[in-house]
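Readers outside the structure-tokenisation community will struggle with the description of the input data as it stands. Showing the layout once, in full, would remove most of the difficulty. For illustration, here is how one protein appears when written out as sequence plus structure tokens:
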Amino acid sequence: MEKQPQTGEQYVHKNNPNLHKSEEVEDVVNYLKESGEKIPNEPEAKLRAYLGFMATYLYDGILTGDEESIERQIEHRVIKPEDVPESYFEAQSRIRREQGHGDVVISQEEREQMIQAIQADQRASLEKWAEYISGPDGNYPHWFESYVWDSIGKLGVYDKQKNKFNKRELSTVAQYPELNQEALAYVYDKITKSFENDMSDEDEKLQKLIQAGNFGNLYAYALVEANATKETLSVTEGSWKKFDQTADPRTARRLSDSLKGYGTGWCTAGEETARGQLYSGDFYVYYSRNHEGNDTIPRIAVRMANDRVAEVRGVLPEQELEPDFYDIARQQLENLPGGESYFKKVDDMKRLTELDRLTKENSQVDLSLDDIRFLYELEYKIDGFGRDTDPRILDIVNRRNAVNDLNKILSIIETWEDDLDLSKYSSRLSKGLILPKTVEGNLDLRYLKSSEALTLPQSISGSLNLYDLESADELVLPEAISGDLFLSNLSEFKNLVLPKQVGGILFLSKLKSAQGLVMPNADVIRLEGLSSLDGLELPDDFSGVVWLPVKLKTDDFVVPKGAKIFWDIYSSR
């Protein structure tokens, strides 16, 4: 009988038996051995060393959350314009004809818009996976993060009738699979359970799926478990049940079993996750009444940690609370340590609901300065009960002239005494944004596409994030930035003057030529996208690290005394 894997690395090897022999893994293992590390010539040991190296030294985004790496990996998977099939546009023409618009020829401009929409949807679906499995909410080991991320890139459209994912091709226009945290926790739970050879109580189909190791098939199976037929959700009557803090796996099993089949999306439906959460504190669930009069339908979850409320979740998309359950949640929170901090969420949701109503009636209604500060989260974040931002915020902003709103406040302020995070709205900002002269914190405009008529502060005490900016003409940057400067996607510039001093890292990762730029002093300058070293000059007193692509490696490039070069071998990753 084939030996069952007993570690994550063994499971990865079993399902991808040639991975440890790949050039990428061999290069890392050989590098570590040359550096003095002793690595057994076993697949499990080589994979463990490889994943550790990627997390520790290469800042692989899926393993560490590094935004630069995540961005590259996501873009690598987003469909290329030339791969969008002609059949897609033919289908759009057919739909228009069936809607009575006649034989409409789709223009080149419309094609480009459609392609951009496809890419944006794919990018957003991948960002959900990357954010979750690489962040603290997922908290999965590196082997599982790598296993999931590699597998997701191969999954196409989900066939509900066959309960399986079709294979993803280069020409697949569909989004990547939807992230269901409960289903993912279920997959992890069952795989790790198999390491202990404890599968006797599982059905034969699941046992075979785990043996085969195909993530797509396992995830499809888990989605059925997570989204079984729901009871009617119109009833609010019910009761709270407390699961006491414990290390007893039987309590964790009772908790996770009570959540399965209702499609809550809560990761607590995974037994291993429930076990870890109960180890940290009590857990409360509000169950509403089913048609038989029993309180069995989970609607609210309250997780405790260190004797305080750590998390409150509902069952709406993004795990928001249903409005009819606000008062039920509040009454419970009033009796729990730390619960008072969640009262603000109730107030924020009610205020957002009112702004949503007002701007639906008149999109350009005159909002008070307090309402503008609230809507654009200038002084504090709008808190909801879900994992992600309440989608109504962007819905309201999309109805407004965001630059006019923001300039009413920001243009008359000399000094902003905190972080100024406009990232959520920056892709929607047109020309003419006027920012305070001084920002005593970080300034985040990461999704800003155009720098036209942009007035940046003269001084920034933290970092400046212009991550998505692809071109910069006549852009005046602050003379000094105490933190990092993100110009990660900048590929074209004209009359661009960089700051004289960057206190942290200067990201110019996609810049092809440094000709005409005067580099600042910085801890690190990332230029791994350069196609030539011509014109690259560093300050005489530069003592930091400059990242350059290994393909340009040469002994002729001289750096100032005290400076270091890191020749990046993974710049294409």
Remarks:
- The first helix runs from residue 8 to 15.
- Residues 9-156+165-172 form one domain.
- The chain has a mean pLDDT of 85.
